[in-house]
Amino acid sequence: MPLLTQSWPTPTDRLVALRQRVRAPFVLPRKGESLAAASLVATAHGVAYADPAQDAAHRDIDGVLWAVCTGSATGGTDYASELHPERQRIAMERLLCAGCKKPAARDERGMAWGLPLLDDAADTVWDRVQTAIPPMCEVCAVLTPQVCPQLREGHVELRVREAELVGVRGTLYPRSSQGGTVDPDALLLYDDPDLPFVIARQSVRELRRITVVARGVACS
Ligand SMILES: [Zn+2]
Hints:
Strand content: 25-35%
Radius of gyration: 20 Å
Number of helices: 5
Structural class: alpha+beta
Number of strands: 11
Order of helices and strands: HEEEHEEHEEEHHEEE
Shape: globular
Bound molecules: zinc ion
């Protein structure tokens, strides 16, 4: 009978595997994925896709219209683009890790969140900050700042007891009767009367009852 042999992964092997995981974060788009152009109709009540089936397929439970995405998640990570609308929304609504799609970490201080430092970081009040970045698991909270260009420059690690879904970011179209220009990056809260005129790309939560775990850590 031949001898059975098995090689166990070394700590270095596991670290390489983990770093590979965070090099392709769940919520980031891959090269080859993009937003698709879709015919729009605008009425006094809001904007809609001209194709009723497409419109119905891209409205969430609150009636908000979401961007149409194309391509497959097979190419390299596109760090230059904003978070992938469909995967960002999944992670944000279900409170899944932005890096690996596993449940976000929780302890007695709340859920783990990692955010880039703001320009006025020294005076930043993080309570009630509104963000489109989903939470993270324990592993991704440690490793992601080492590979993500936004977090490498400095980030804050938070624990959050309340994280209410408060609105969306997206492209806001003017009411037809008022004229005006398109705002490509508008924040619309759920009680905003202009919400029917937005095509959403990012779900936004407001973080409350926050504990700052660490901040200002720049990775070399
Ligand atoms: Zn993770």
